Amino acid sequence: MKVAIAASGATLDSQASPVFGRCSHIIVVDIVDGDFKDVKAIPNPSTTEGGGAGIKTARIVGNENAQALISGSVGPNAFEVLTQLEIKTYQMVQGTVEENLTLMSQGKLDELHPTAPRGRGLGVGGRGGRR
Amino acid sequence: MKTITILSGKGGAGKSTLTASLSVMLANSNKIVSIDCDADAPNLALVLGLEEEDFDSWESITTGEKVEMDLEKLETLKLRSNSQYLKKCVDACNFSAITWNQEEDIPVLNELLCVGCGACQLACPEIFTLKKVENARIGVGKTQYGFPIVSGQLEIGESGSGKVVNEIRNNAFNIAEKIQADYIIMDSAAGIGCPVIASLTGSDYVILVTEPTSVAFWDLKRAIELVDHFNIPCGAVINRWGINKDLTYQLQDYFRNQQIPLLGMIPYDIRFVEALVNLKPAVVYEPKFKPIFKEIMDNCLSDMNDIPL
Amino acid sequence: MKIAITGGKGGTGKSTISTSLAVELAAGENKVLLVDADVECPDDHIILSTNRKKVQDVCTILPILNQNKCLKCGDCSEICKENAIVFIKDRYPFIVTGQCNGCGACILACSSKALEKGQQEIGAIYQGKSKKSNQISSENLLLIWGEIEIGCEATALVVNATREYAENIASDYDYVLIDTAAGTHCNVISAMIGVDLALAVTEPTPLGKHDLELILQLLQLMEVETQIIVNKSDIGDLNLIDDVSRNKNVPIIQKIPYEREILKKHSRGQPVTHNNIKKLSNAITAKTVGGRH
């Protein structure tokens, strides 16, 4: 499976990026039987651009024909693009790109869902601030 | 590195006062960068004692374009009595920036309303050209409290404050990365429009500031809807709680019902105004205020750290 | 006569003064149309406790793709300044509604006419009459305001629609008061198009001064006659505003002190009555201000 991950650098030992639209690189990997093949790091030009950064970054992921994305928070517009492109988004954990990819290959990352209305307990990593 | 954004909906609720004091308190034991994302009417630097000339640098930026109308070509087209054709640009502009002058039989451009979308150029390419404009300046400075500040100023009459806010934020993020900051504290604009939406993008936590007035309450509800739209965790601060106790209780109830943690309450005190006049953060001007802001800071940090990544 | 109430900084008292002035003018047997053009956070209907009747939806263009006509050329995505159209080679482009500002450039750019004009709702216009008839002679005062959809960025479009709605009924009124948002950008500019007079409300603090200077620059650029109102005039340092008034040659027409009674009414969301607002109203009706046009 082809997986893209938002990263803070260009290598597998870089940290996974908690931000999507303004992450430094998108790293694309083909996960075959738990091995990482065809590792490709694409610098994200959107880090220095104005509006719609998330949308442009989602487009990069789409252009690479990735089937899944690992990232931290994804804004509503970028999410719309990913959904349209039928790319599933998974919640990253703090750590390196490699660690996240390993968890991904083991099926241990949670899938992210679009913004859920408050108080309904849906969505991951959103409403945690409210008790 | 975490980004905390201060938001209120209603203007004058105390965003800059809170941002400045919170920045000073946080900077005691953390590396921080403070950002003013109210490019329309930036005030945070002033509250932190920095006037425009005290900044280390100001850089002009271009985030958008505006259209220019070629009056000579317009005249030629008018002579060829091409008004049918010329009216196309009026129809093309969805921002009321081009209107039709009946007497002169020509389109008139109001540059102030132009957003640079280029629709008129597609309709009448002969007379319109898009050109880049320097629509804002970004300033970087160091406060006397030891942390950097990034501020922006939209040029008068220019548009695109959302995009300008993006630039200000990017600039601040770069500085924050360089100094390996723990926190970025962002003061947002009033309202819930494009500059505010731009400041929310990439925020980890939002502090909603309100005051016990019925108008601020109404605006707060709209601000909460916006924060929910972006699914960002938030906490609240009630400012000037002494001016209306009944409404203060109502606000407390409201926050409880909405499951929004109340991070702290700031009393109504004329010394806050005195602090502003003296260009000093409240906690510096009146050390007695420190416990109030410390409570807000501690509650904010512990609430933020409870959030699963 | 059309008067804008603005000021740059938020919370200086624009809405307080707009509503009070509207009530004073209406009490003096003038027909008053109050337009709340702060469409992100419209507050005047709270202060005047009016009813809330929707009179018009505000819509803008939303391009809709007809896949049968689409050549997958990507021109629409290329032309879009907002990056609201995503095009990936050999796929149909699609529109990110939340990012689209409704400019319609993509529709004009599409050579195969595959994009059609659809609509997206971005807000609504409301009108209200005061429910407390003892406070205001409600016959003489009508409030209209715009409200933008939460999360929508097209503030200026909702302001434009609100202003245009007001312009269509303005001839029935002696005075049109326009209460603007804080700030100096497009939504404030749109609100002030075509006004005869602007009242810049400020407070005597360095922040009030700083933002007053910005709004005065804008008003100068827009060539609008302007007067300054100093609210909360007895706190802070009045010299700050006196300096701006002198340097920019814009007179201070009225000062309103920071009184407990005003604060109380403000917190409860009630229109403020004050002798100085009555004086301001009298000055306007006597045409001693705003006479340049």
Overview of the structural elements:
The complex is a heterotrimer of chains A (131), B (309) and C (293). Chain A has helices at residues 53-63, 76-84, 97-105, and strands at 2-7, 25-32, 35-43, 68-71, 88-91. By secondary structure, chain A is α/β, with parallel strands linked by helices. Chain A has a five-stranded mixed beta sheet, with helices on both faces. In chain A, helix 2 (76-84) links the parallel strand 4 and strand 5 (88-91). The radius of gyration of chain A is 14 Å and the shape is globular. Mean pLDDT of chain A is 83; it is low at 116-131. Chain B has 309 residues and is α/β, with parallel strands linked by helices. Chain B has twelve helices and 13 strands. In chain B, strand 5 (98-101) and strand 6 form a beta hairpin. By secondary structure, chain C is of the alpha/beta class. Chain C folds into two domains: 2-58 and 123-289, Rossmann fold (3-Layer(aba) Sandwich); 67-113, Alpha-Beta Plaits, CATH 3.30.70.20. Chain C contains ten helices and eleven strands. Chain C has helices at residues 14-27, 44-47, 75-79, 105-109, 155-169, 186-191, 206-221, 239-248, 260-268, 275-285; strands at 2-6, 32-36, 53-65, 85-86, 94-95, 115-128, 141-148, 175-179, 197-202, 226-231, 252-256. In chain C, strand 9, helix 7 and strand 10 (226-231) form a beta-alpha-beta unit. Chains in contact: A-B, A-C, B-C. The interface between B and C is large, with 65 and 64 residues.
